[in-house]
## 1
Amino acid sequence: MQEKQATIYLDNASTTSLDSKVLEAMLPYFKEQFGNASSIHALGQTARVAVEKAREQVALFLNCKESEVYFTPSATFSDNLAILGVVRVAQKKGIKPHIITNVIEHPAVLEPIKHLEKTGQIEATFLPVYQEGIVKVEDVERAIKSNTCLVSIMQANNEIGTIQPIDEIAQVIGNFRGPKKYPLFHTDAVQAANYLDLNVEKLGVDLLTLSGHKIYGPKGIGVLYVKQSTLLEPIVFGGHQEAGLIPGTENVANIVGLGKAIELVKSSKLKVQSLRKLRDKLIDGILKEIPQTFLNGSREQRLANNANISFKGVEGEALLILLDQAGIAVSTGSACSSGSLEASHVLMALDCGKERAHSAVRFSLSKNTIEKEIDYVLNVLPKMVEHLRKISGFKV
Ligand code: PLP
């Protein structure tokens, strides 16, 4: 059977389309400029120059030094390196490190922390996020202990789009830390990059994660910002690349693509206001036209492109399939948790119950979303929900 191509793509939190300017920038590095950035000859040096230009583009975006930007194979790798790398340094000091995170982090943060906890290597605190999906700064303050080596709180959530008070958390950590090195502060800014200010100085973070494919760049490339003098142990061995922290031949084309994508974020940020309007039209339209629908996560502290809505009496997966048949691509939970029948850990953390978690659909818009597409969704969605409620016997 031939796969039907989605025509209205509202799954941008899973991945974004590649910007044509990004592709254009990348193409030479697949063909004529195929050099290894570590080679001394001219081809190698051309690749090196391209890698360093991308580093400059990222540094400009984050307001940091170029030497603080590390290219990684993915944001998942960046998150793992931030956590495991910090823990390994702290362990050498002979203490059992403590990490603070929260229950709605991406698995790329939660899983390494859970693994370290399960194997007895660290103590961990998983803070709640309450009904709004937001971490309370006072909870962070209360949780910090003398052996806390790392606080890892994402800037914005991938499923419900809620935005965390990163600068306030940094303040609390800074007050506790004083002249000492710990606790360090890491934020996963993968979903925030298109919409929020990622000036690391203003945010007050020591470590920050980015991903190429959420910002109209290529898949398989990430960034870890590491503030100068922050000690990290490598987690992979076998090469000198990225100051020995991320060994392996640089993926030059992807690095160039990420650099270009980062550069373009600035211009797409100018459109955030109109994107927010489209998102609000979608949210308000659904909540008004379809009874028993609920927005998941804070309405105010929310990314401009995210609408995560539960449709009471409807299985999210069933609605996803009907929408897909109508040429509309959405997601239930995050892409990474799709395929498993377990309710999303993020929605379950909001304490809204299993049924509401299973009936949630995530619409994530992009800089390319147009009003006509939102109108189309609002036109076809009520009938789909009505149909699914009818066959499941749910009465409004
Ligand atoms: N962190 C967050 C918040 C994400 O949304 C994702 C991807 O869904 C990742 C990390 C992992 O990114 P990558 O696909 O680059 O490994």
## 2
Amino acid sequence: MIRFDFSGVTDKLLGGRGIAVSDIEAIVPALACAHETIMAARAKREILFYDLPNDNTMIEGVITLAEQLKGRFKNIVHLGIGGSSLGPKAIFQALKDPLHNISAEPRLFFMDNVDPELMGSILENIDPRETLFTVVSKSGGTAETAAQFMVVYDLLQRTLGKRCHDHLVLITDPEKGILRKLAVADGIASLSIPPEVGGRFSVLTPVGLFPACLLGIDIQAMMAGAGKMAACVLQGDVFKNPAYLYAAVHFLALARGVNISVLMPYSNALYDLADWYRQIWAESIGKRHSLKGKDVYAGQTPVKALGATDQHSQVQLYVEGPFDKIVNIIDVATFRKDVPIPHVFGDTDEMGYLAGKSIAGLIRAEALGTKGALIESGRMTSHISLETIDAGTLGGLFMFFEAATACMGYLLDVNPFDQPGVELGKQITFDLMGRRGYEGKFRSSSPVERMVIEL
Ligand code: PA5
């Protein structure tokens, strides 16, 4: 289903700049230590994402609620930000038609920012009487989602009166936070995000599964794919565990100054997966403190790119610029649709060679072309090949990258599951917006205000 080829980072193909198998063997003790940490935390249910595919109660809860609501709404509007929206967005793009919102229902819109124009436009284009709003916040306290929810709640109340609650599903912590309080107090339909699963690891909880299920995506197949991958990425042996290998080559690359990790799918359907990866890799391993509290300023900047489009934007830099990137290419063997290239202009040199081929054949050749050019230029590249894009494969990819991220965090001796930098930004926003208990905490000491130049 999914094949991981890391030959493009090795000394065999890259010479002196490459990683030798003996380099990977040298970090086997560190990998064993990371593995033990993961297994111990998993045994104590502190790390739960590996086990989500076996949580039938959670999966059935999602299916039951989706069944009750299916067919009742023309639109779904998903409120949430960061880990509360990147996963469902990646699922939607990967598994539904690129023009789904034009050609089918229910249409799905993501309010994943507090951009007033985005929000205003979505609200102008939906009828609240025909719309279900999924409100997703693990903490319940994120300002962006709270503000959106207030706008939507008011709109629903004004349009539907008491029936407004029938147009809401709240997805949040099972016990804590304002959303849970409201769900309990007002009897609003809700689903729970397991407390042990952090936002960016939550795609395989109701956060990603519920909107997917409303759109008719086979979430059981997705979880089966994730479960199959979990069995594979829980193995201790790095040479049998593709997620540990992915982490190991990124760790060794980072030690050689490769501080950028590009994820470059050759498929538009997987571009939002690259966006999801950008968050999990950045937020999980970008840390000031080591596990023992020392300043380490760890991290490797994730970048998303799209093949073949970015061959005409980014690849010049990747092939000839600084030796600071590992480019992880994803390509697809069998696309769900293909378009044959007809025999027009067949007698010209410029176009004739394309006649009789297919668009899928061309994009695949472009992926191999970029891989070849990178290797030829001594740049690190790994290659993830998918047989096709379906629910099972996507579930497998989520699990693969989650496991790789956990391992990379522990190899770097940081906690991959916290996000103190994000929390700090949230608190400064609370202060600026006048939330009780946060007044003046940051504003007066912030040097930023003194640096504003008005033009
Ligand atoms: O990964 C994380 O924890 C964050 O990106 C959160 O998902 C994001 O900040 C949104 O938080 P919440 O779901 O609590 O509203």
